[in-house]
Hints:
The structure holds two protein chains of two kinds. By secondary structure, chain A is of the alpha+beta class. Chain A has helices at residues 4-13, 22-29, 46-56, 76-81, 106-109, 128-138, 144-156; strands at residues 18-21, 37-42, 62-63, 85-89, 92-97, 99-100, 104-105, 113-118, 121-126. Chain A has a seven-stranded mixed sheet. The longest helix of chain B is centred in the C-terminal third of the chain and has 23 residues, at 28-50. The N and C termini of chain B lie far apart (49 Å). In chain B, 12% of the residues are buried.
Amino acid sequence: MTDFVALLSSLASAGVEFIIVGGVAAAAHGSPRTTQDVDVVYERSAANLNRLELALRPFSPYLRGAPPGLPFKLNAATLAAGLNFTLTTSLGWIDLLGEIAGAGNYRNLYPHSKPIQAFGVSCRVIDLDTLIAAKRAAGRPKDFEAIAELELIRQRKLPE
Amino acid sequence: MNSIDEIIEIYKRDVDVTLIDEALRRTVEERLQALQDFEKFREELRKATSGQ
């Protein structure tokens, strides 16, 4: 089971710069669709990679779907050497994304995100238009139904 | 309109907008709480059926 709140809280309390994307972002915008993981786009400065390592270290991050026993250690060096990581932790599943199709990296995405506050956690979430654009850019058939739903949310929500 | 747009328009016909309207009436925190609650429910179901 993924504890969405605990994962986001651990990142936020460590000062990690990240933006929520994917299914949790869709839920924040009003999608009734469920998800089993947290997807975040993270900023890739050395300082932020260190913060990310410290935030997740207590929760035994490991490559999701990989056989046990691999010499994998999530630290700043590992993060710097890669880009996107699909992880399992003792708090559940989290995907750390250096960039996403249609929206780019953290710096590209930041102007297209907005702050949210929930459960005492302050963080940023991709805005609805950019979430739709990213899912369209990904072009995955599994996203078509979610895109339809998100576009209906855009039509039906009141102006903020 | 390209083919992806056409497919998405077809999907829109079957979206239950009452669920969307209900979610839009909630705060962001309430929406995320609903997601968390469902995840807990799914896990309970998984545990309950894993021995069968």
